[in-house]
Fold:
Amino acid sequence: QKEVEQNSGPLSVPEGAIASLNCTYSDRGSQSFFWYRQYSGKSPELIMSIYSNGDKEDGRFTAQLNKASQYVSLLIRDSQPSDSATYLCAVTWGSQGNLIFGKGTKLSVKP
Amino acid sequence: GAVVSQHPSWVICKSGTSVKIECRSLDFQATTMFWYRQFPKQSLMLMATSNEGSKATYEQGVEKDKFLINHASLTLSTLTVTSAHPEDSSFYICSASQGGFSTDTQYFGPGTRLTVL
Structure:
């Protein structure tokens, strides 16, 4: 059974702090890894994609991938109250890129 | 770029009726479209994958005769929930990718909230 595991939280950080979100996956054959943000009642919004080991930075967001450990993380620097949402880790499997989602980590950024 | 729309955004129907949800890629051609369902406080669960012009591939446990998927063009896929029941009430979200490869990004529509009375 292919699985993606995330800590459900809630993760609470003060405004301006670094938020660290973690994800592990079970399928060693997975090639693509994504972080989505989902506000309550809305559909997911893509934040970052990462395909190779190491770090990938985009503005305040940094994704980290370690395929040997089957681990993906997302760091949010200078967290803002508007970052408060559920963050979904997603991993692809299969030739067409079917996505398996984790249950999400709820982040709360306190002003 | 990469905008996906869904229609309707919400629908309420009586038990036993059928409901059609449309998913459109507005500024790109979507080789592959995906349909997800999300129940409250749960994550997205893939229901089926569809490629233009071919039959959809359904995930285990999803009834293909109940959830009819048509991907008639490179910009439009439809999901029809037939003989809907209250347990089908959920948030239905489609996504689309351009190339249909495992490294392609999926772009999500805004979702359709279905309530079956």
About this structure: The mean pLDDT of chain B is 91. The longest strand of chain B covers residues 90-97.
